[in-house]
Amino acid sequence: MKNPNSRNGKSILFTCQNSKSLDILKRDGRFINKKEYIMKHLDGIAPTILKAYDWFVAAASKRIRKPEDVQYQIWCVTDFSICMKPIENEIIYVLEVPDEEIIYFNSFKWDYIINYHYVPENKEDLEKYIREMEAKGFSNTYEFLMGRYAGKFPLEERKIKDSWYRIFDIEEWNSREIQANLWEIKKEWVKCILKPGDTIPEKYCIK
């Protein structure tokens, strides 16, 4: 689905990043995400989270080609009101990005993936899936991928991972629910940079 707020083939996105990224952007003209950044940011939970990230990178790469030197995605939001607010040593980039560089996804569905669960089509599908799992004697689908059942039930694992592609299915636009992935931030996309306490220019707010 196209961003309804897109203008002239470009859309405004927001992302909160470490302020050191600005030094890299100025030096190289672009900033990309690396595994070392994620490991440092997520600390102890990084190994578990990275498994979900690895899946996302592979899936998103089928939609928009990933540059060879890019390791991981850069998360963005389409509405400044839900952007993480910067704290010390962080900044917000206000970006104007060509639409063909953006992969949109449903952040609510991402919550299922990050917890290694089945992503349902709708409420009825979720209820049906839960009944099926209960009938088979399973109470926690997380365990198919990360728990005691990992590697033992390949058909159930495949069903869960196949459902994850629904993250890219967007039936209607909701700026508080739809987020965006970029493979890189290019210097020419930056419209302004906000430091802690800064106010966003009104022209970048959704009316």
Characterize this entry briefly:
The chain has 207 residues and is α+β, with helices and mostly antiparallel strands. Helix content is 33%, strand content 19%.
Overview of the molecule:
With about 210 residues, the chain is α+β, with helices and mostly antiparallel strands. The protein has one domain. The protein has 7 helices and 8 strands. Strands 1-4-8 form a 3-stranded antiparallel sheet. Helix 2 packs antiparallel against helix 3. The mean pLDDT is about 90.
Helix/strand layout:
Layout: E1 10-18, H1 20-28, E2 30-31, H2 35-42, H3 46-61, E3 74-77, E4 90-98, E5 103-106, H4 107-114, H5 123-135, H6 142-145, H7 154-163, E6 178-182, E7 185-186, E8 190-194
Antiparallel strand pairs: 1-4, 2-7, 3-6, 4-8, 5-6
Helix pairs in contact: 2-3
Q: Please write the string of helix (H) and strand (E) elements.
A: EHEHHEEEHHHHEEE
Q: Say how many strands there are.
A: 8
Overall residue-averaged pLDDT value = 90
Share of residues in helices = 25-40%
Radius of gyration: 19 Å
Q: Main sheet, how many strands, which sense, barrel?
A: 3 strands, antiparallel
Give the tally of structural domains: 1
Strand portion, in percent? 15-25%
Name the poorly predicted regions: none
Tally the helices: 7
Overall spatial form: globular
* Span between termini: 20 Å
Structural class: alpha+beta
Strand order of the main beta sheet, please? 1-4-8
